[in-house]
Amino acid sequence: MRHARRRVVRRVTQLAAVGGLLLGGAMVTTAMASETPGTSAVPFSSARTAGDTGAALVSRLGTARTAGSWIGADGRPVVAVTDEKAAAAVKRAGAEAKVVPHSMNELKSATATLRAAPRVAGTAWGVHTRTTGGVVSADKTVSASDWSRLSRVATGIGSFVRMARTGGEFTTRLNSAQPILSTGGRCSAGFNVTNGQSDFILTAGHCGPANTIWFADNQGNQQLGTTVNTNFPGSDFSLIQYASGKAGDGAAVVAVGGGKGVLITGAADPTVGQRVFRSGSTSGLHDGQVTGLNATVNYPEGTVTGLIQTNVCAEPGDSGGPLFSEGIALGVTSGGSGDCTTGGTTFFQPLTKAMSALGVRLIVSTQNANGGRNAAPSGAPSAAATQGAVAPNAASPGSSAPVTGASDGSTLLSRLTDTRNLGPGLLVIAGSLIALVATRYIRSEQDRRAYQRYYSATWG
């Protein structure tokens, strides 16, 4: 009986060891297949596809019969239309139609009327396609008389223009996420761009006028570059030319805090409802949704138009920091109200518009710039997006965070010995081998769970 029990124990031990080896081997295979060093976020998600579909339908039907488009909670494109015939066309294209009383032409006319009114610092307005109406916001600095005057203007336009008070103040967030410093204050580096001869940091225009000298340290010992072109107010972007002329290694990486970075593989315009991420040197990484496009803000320094509006928070010092989604660059932080404790409204300078005006192009990662498979809606980060959060090494302003081990020529041996990718799987195999001597199945199970937790972690 005793020998029989021993044989059972040995058999169970062997089965556990074999099972552990198979599990470890599967994990090794998964690590090799799904996370080659330097893998970036999926550049074109289904959310982008949905946004493109909605935009194409709006373009085809015209602004007299539509009032914009957005991404629904289920990831499908939603198009606001003014008649049933247009609604039928939208449904045939596989999108959802919402019949609304006012067209985009009417909404644009409303914003033109607001723009012609006397400017009041601390106010902002924009078209909210989901509610198919205009919203005029005023912060706590706007006086009762100015509020009353704006209310009369809004009433004259029509009932679809709504007035709303907001907490805090609409300010430029002065004071890529890495800090850059000058005598005028602190901002955040945005995205690295180039004109083919020199490299630059594209950041917010309000951060400093032309000829502002920027440093990477508080003592002024590490000169970073000089502002050579700026546009503010009106728009809100500027170029800082690197003192060395080059951005250096990791120029396509945005730092997101916690010693991590995300590879940038392209630039695009966002869609209302799209999930987006913002990184800044003060508050780090935060996410939210695009709530409006072509917004106007009356800062104390002047009026800025054509902005992206979101519900992502920001704080002083986050100015100029990058806005992105699944590896696609969208804009740089302009300003807003509130903070990352109570929340707020934040505005961003669209990146594509700034690059076009400046005659520069984005420095991007070439590894996955041609697209990817298995994309997930922006409402939930895809596995590829999570794996795009790579460990940076010697991060610096502008270039933000060079990618560790990002080599197209990596060999099978280097992958097998890369502890970042294969360590958890090898731990499971080692635990199973130990089980041949002493049953340690519980240990291997813990390792397997640790592996799953590691690879399901978010950027932050």
Folded structure, characterized:
The protein has helices spanning 2-34, 46-61, 84-92, 104-116, 144-157, 351-358, 383-387, 412-416, 419-435, 441-455; strands at 66-71, 77-81, 96-99, 123-128, 133-138, 161-165, 171-172, 179-182, 185-188, 191-194, 199-203, 213-215, 223-231, 237-242, 253-257, 260-263, 266-267, 275-280, 284-299, 302-310, 322-325, 328-339, 343-350, 361-362, 389-390. With 460 residues, it is of the alpha+beta class. It has a six-stranded antiparallel β-barrel. Helix 1 packs antiparallel against helix 9 (419-435). The protein is globular. Mean pLDDT is 74; it is low at 21-45, 368-422, 435-441 and 447-460.
Number of strands: 25
Share of residues in strands: 25-35%
N→C terminal distance: 56 Å
The residue-averaged pLDDT reads: 74
The helix count comes to 10
Percent range of helical residues? 25-40%
Give the biggest beta sheet: 6 strands, antiparallel, barrel
Taking all Cα atoms into account, the compactness measure Rg is 26 Å
Structural class: alpha+beta
Strand order of the largest sheet: 18-19-20-23-22-21
Shape annotation: globular
Key structural traits:
six-stranded antiparallel sheet, disordered C terminus, single chain, 460 residues, 25 strands
What's the quick description here?
This protein is of the alpha+beta class.
